[in-house]
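Entry for the shared binder. Reason: the reviewer on the internal report wants the predicted structure included alongside the sequence.
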Amino acid sequence: MFDEKDVRIMNILQKNARTPNAEIARQLGVAPSCVLERIRKLEGSGVIQGYEARLAPKPVDLGLLAFVFARADERASSGQAGRRLMAFPEVLEVHSVAGEDCYLVKVRAADPEDLARILRERFGSIPQLRSTRSIIVLQTLKESAALPLGQLGAGLPKETGHAA
């Protein structure tokens, strides 16, 4: 599915999505047009979903990070509560989970009072939600959206030439 060059391109872009194609081409030893074609294929297939800037939460007054377990009264296949949770701007991630709870939700807020408001006004507006349990993060030791591609291209034969 992916060869060594694709994996290297994905790793470079995960570290810095603003890396110019010419720089990627230099690192891979291929022509910039080859890199452009490969990136377009990765985008077209949905492997590269988009590019975004990572902002520091504290300077934009969103220093509180919480994980909220939400239990809903709905059939698992319905997902109505999950779709409503996804619509809130403070909600960064919504995961359907196994166990007693239905959803694990990652939330950013200004402070504990703001989190309480989000839970009361936003989450409370969803009739299917039966209960929530919140965990407030005291300190983030590591946070990354980069996927560990490590061995994805391992074992593939090395390519020669500048073919795409």
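Summary line for the report: The radius of gyration is 21 Å.
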